[in-house]
Amino acid sequence: MIGLTSYPAYELLRQHWWGDLIAIYLFLGGLGGMTMLVSYYHWLKGAPTRSVLSEGIGGIIAVLIGIGCLVLDLGHPERAYYILMVPGLNPFAAVLLVVGVIALLVSYYYHTHKASRETVVGCLIGGVVSLAAGVMVHATGLGMAGLYPTLMTNMTSFIFVGTILLIMFIIFSILFVAPIIAKRWRVLRWLRTITKFWEEKRPLEVIGLIATLLGIGVALYTGILIGVVESVPFWHTPALPILFLVSAFSTSLSFYCVLLTPQIPLVGWKDKEKLVRLVHQVAYADGVTMIFELIVLGTYALISSYGPPAAMNSVELLIQGDLAPAFLGGVVLIGLVVPILGIFLYELRGPYSGKKALTAFILSLLVLIGGLLLRYVVLSAGVLQVPLV
Amino acid sequence: MTRYGMVIDMGRCVGCGACVAACISENLGLEVAKAMEEGKLDKMELRTHIDEIEIGVFPTVRILFHHSMCRHCEDPPCVRVCPTGASYKNKDGIVLIDKDKCIGCKYCMTACPFNARYIDEVTMTPDKCTFCEHRVKEGKLPACVEACPTHARVFGDLDDPNSKVSKIVSEGATPAGAFYGTKPKVYYVRPTR
Asked: Which of A91, A106, A142, A175 has the fewest Cβ atoms nearer than 10 Å?
């Protein structure tokens, strides 16, 4: 007689479907999303415009490259737009309608606060045009008449939710940086004919805040995307989105340092001092964030190492398996420990200097490498616990 | 309303592989041709396959033939995560893939706790067991069920209390991995000796 207990309950299977391109997407999505928080905060605090712009534009480019990686990873990249086929309402129409309503609300706000007639009328016209365009796009299907009315999207899929978040983030980020660019770059001065309607501080504050919240949403979503996968216990934990969010914030600060440092020799002495000080402030914030990240990462790995079996196997892969060099050497040592020690034992001791800014630059590059490797090892260590009999 | 399901009686299975061969013959003609052309026939992934599992403790040991396939869950995670609605459940409870809508994001593959899906090298989209939906529509049995010489695979309507499949389920057949909460509709009868 063979007892039922002798049946193997499950087999462990390492996921191999999502690889390097998705790791890059998760990294750049998180980094790009959180750069808007950094950029917006420094804009509010009156940091040099060039620093705010470089971070803002850099974030948008990072997210766009990330989306490119996601699309390239698809079995059918040419069908990527199928994600946006919303039943009943074309997504492009939805965006235009939302923008239209916001513009009308802003117009009303200006009207009640006695702003100039030109601004009120501008917002009003913008709102009406946007609403009309939304209705037209919805009616015509924007050339997708054969596709858009069909039930092709799924609100419970985090790829769909993420796509909407990414699109909204890019739109609001562009709305935020466009007036600043138009004011600063002579070549793009023509843009002011459009951006003048929201280039004043108050509307820019609102747009920047929305872009920042969407950016945080994008960074969090990169963790939720794989966190909802119940079949991979190592991913299926609330700690993962938090880890990715903290890492995204840390890498966005490092990205800021990397973008700021090369600008130091290009500016006048007054701005130079400002920039050097800014690099050190950002490095300090990054150091504190990385300590927090190390705690979250350690706790996450520790709890996962207690089960279920697939999660235990994932931690084993990270600590003793083929991912150990990338995890222990790349993520923990190069990406966290060395930068933390470098920032607190060297960077923040004594007066600010250009040499120290260069150190911050190098340490920031290490943090970025660590951030990318973190996504790679978490994805690669995904192990399914496949039930047998 | 029908609610199709399957029972696999592992006590009856002799591991002959007729179900696998019937499935390939019925559903995977193009894929086999492509794999033969590329010399990858031995690496070809299948909609259903049988693994040999050694169970017991010496001297009371035996080989168990475990059948892997899509479990056509009532609450399928693959359908929940699919961004385009390409993965869907039809009115008879069969989980299917509309390959024309699929973008190949592989989210369904990571979400399936049963590792039931694989990439079809011809269409570059995921593929899996369909319970031979095209045959069932015509009132036939799935190819694997029809081919099984020992009647180890039983197919039918789980909502019909008089169906053979319902009777075996009511006698104690249970799905594997029920703890995932997806309510699989492929049940197993485990041998006791």
From this structure: A142
